[in-house]
Amino acid sequence: MKAGTSDEEWREDCAPRRVLELFATKWTSMILHVLHVRLNGAARTGVLQRSLPGVSKKMLTQTLREMENTGLVTRHVQGTVPPAVEYRLTPLGTRFIEPIELLYAWGRSNSDALNELGSRPTSRR
């Protein structure tokens, strides 16, 4: 692969692939959206789970850990008994809000086209 070639643009660590990796699960963008739009950028795990119908506690925890590792959210443990854990958007997580909201707005305005795609075995409506 030569520098400056079209092959170089699509290498394994290229920006488009890295963006798609962030959204490998459907819950990443939904968590960012809910934290920003409905929860003012921060929420405890239980509040997040109630705000995201269909997500299991295990999947939410797993996704939040991945998001923390990538720098999209931070985890804050309060010294209460039992410990209260709150997740907050980071500046990086906040930067991802704009493209997510554009994508969600496109989905809402093109729901008829999405409905024509038919349902997938793994999707719930």
Automatic annotation (TrEMBL):
GO molecular function: DNA binding
InterPro entries: HTH_HxlR, WH-like_DNA-bd_sf, WH_DNA-bd_sf
Chain ranges of the HTH hxlR-type domain: 14-115
SUPFAM superfamilies per UniProt: Winged helix' DNA-binding domain
Keyword DNA-binding attached: yes
Pfam families from the UniProt entry: HxlR (PF01638)
Keyword terms: DNA-binding, Transcription, Transcription regulation
PANTHER family in the record: HTH-TYPE TRANSCRIPTIONAL REGULATOR YODB (PTHR33204:SF37), TRANSCRIPTIONAL REGULATOR, MARR FAMILY (PTHR33204)
Protein name per UniProt: Transcriptional regulator
Origin species: Paenirhodobacter populi
Lineage start: Bacteria, Pseudomonadati, Pseudomonadota, Alphaproteobacteria, Rhodobacterales
